[in-house]
Fold this sequence. Notes:
Layout: E1 5-16, E2 28-43, E3 52-56, E4 64-72, E5 75-78, H1 84-100, H2 102-109, E6 113-119, H3 141-145, H4 167-182, H5 188-191, H6 197-214, H7 221-228, E7 231-234, H8 253-256, E8 272-275, E9 282-289, H9 295-308, H10 310-340, H11 342-352, H12 367-397, H13 404-414, E10 419-423, E11 432-438, H14 447-457, E12 463-465, E13 477-479, H15 487-492
Helix pairs in contact: 1-2, 1-4, 1-6, 4-6, 4-7, 6-7, 9-10, 9-12, 10-11, 10-12, 11-12, 13-14
Amino acid sequence: xxxxxxxxxxxxxxxxxxxxxxxxxxxxxxxxxxxxxxxxxxxxxxxxxxxxxxxxxxxxxxxxxxxxxxxxxxxxxxxxxxxxxxxxxxxxxxxxxxxxxxxxxxxxxxxxxxxxxxxxxxxxxxxxxxxxxxxxxxxxxxxxxxxxxxxxxxxxxxxxxxxxxxxxxxxxxxxxxxxxxxxxxxxxxxxxxxxxxxxxxxxxxxxxxxxxxxxxxxxxxxxxxxxxxxxxxxxxxxxxxxxxxxxxxxxxxxxxxxxxxxxxxxxxxxxxxxxxxxxxxxxxxxxxxxxxxxxxxxxxxxxxxxxxxxxxxxxxxxxxxxxxxxxxxxxxxxxxxxxxxxxxxxxxxxxxxxxxxxxxxxxxxxxxxxxxxxxxxxxxxxxxxxxxxxxxxxxxxxxxxxxxxxxxxxxxxxxxxxxxxxxxxxxxxxxxxxxxxxxxxxxxxxxxxxxxxxxxxxxxxxxxxxxxxxxxxxxxxxxxxxxxxxxxxxxxxxxxxxxxxxxxx
Length: 505
Ligand SMILES: Nc1ncnc2c1ncn2[C@@H]1O[C@H](COP(=O)(O)OP(=O)(O)OP(=O)(O)O)[C@@H](O)[C@H]1O
Ligand SMILES: C[C@@](O)(CCOP(=O)(O)O)CC(=O)O
């Protein structure tokens, strides 16, 4: 049996640019997070026949799908199955692989494949209560850190609650990249580089698969973050995918491969990815809010209002874009200030940690520290301005982008000492928030601790922190099976989904 191929891809949070990023005239700030989705590919075992592919999501009940691949006259057909996302990923990636070297492809496939898809706990609302403090119904960051990795969920995929981290984009990116590596379409060395043709090819096919599986062409920021890591994203021309919607008959390579000859009469992959990192001593914290909103219906209503009120919408979009850019620029400036004078930066952070943002500009500090303080204050102002304008967008369109309960939760969170900014990620609604906090202070009196207290006491909704922080990786990456704690156990334990997480310690 050949060695396993393991590829992981990160989840995401769109901190700025929701709705705007659907239009190539505007951009969005997407942070890829430390929580990841893993795909493990092995040659098929005794239960997998030639040209058969078994895909499993062991954390879920009834989540094993068998696919038979038919190779006929250079066509590759993967039989349909219930999981549309997995089916599209197999159909398109195998087709692309067979276009390269049909013989080698057929030979590899004749061994059958076993594919396991496994997600970090953060992607789904965990039913396991606070293991540290059984009397407390909500998990805390400390109690979540003590949970075993890859908890079994004891439900079917259709019954699970997602946390908004982009499970489908991370799933697709990891499956597609692992298959491309397995069939030798891309190399490990090429894939390891951020700007390589191999990584771009993985991105392009993951975007196509995600669009087909979702039945719509979204902005693609989630797939882009899963492939490239945190960045400022400007979308690709949706027309590039138009010819591929009838993918069964058309060769994929000329449209997806960045190395293919360019046809100047056709739209090209023109998305822009400008790498980004949060400044030092700034931590992103996400919360899963037990609410629930439907992104497609929010998007539909916002688009409807925009198309009927073009001038008002243009003005609003321009103001939001300006505020988003102010936030990105100030965060970037902070990274530069850290490099230029680390001591002053650290001292400023230390003093801001004990003050709410509304008192930051009055803080008594040296000149160098004041420059840092002012940049942090601009991030706070931009965050608040964007929230105000996004609420306005929601009022205009008649939808709750930042519903009143979220406003109450965010106002209280952002008023805490050492909290820099907050908002509703992506399309907004009732199901998640993000907050940026300063990483400083005494062990029990950190801004993170204060925010956790606010969330724990919040009465109108159950608010649970997630473990995710900003990922410093370049996005999707190849892993060693033995290097990821708990991963091998998931794929080798029978009936894993029904195991009790406490027995996994
Ligand atoms: N562990 C998994 N195994 C197989 N398929 C999965 C898994 N997790 C998610 N999916 C697929 O992704 C689909 C969810 O995709 P959808 O686009 O609705 O959500 P999403 O926007 O990615 O959600 P979120 O951002 O909340 O994570 C599921 O219906 C399923 O087909
Ligand atoms: C509204 C939108 O801009 C963001 C949706 O983000 P999310 O899935 O809510 O994280 C849609 C999109 O970009 O595809």
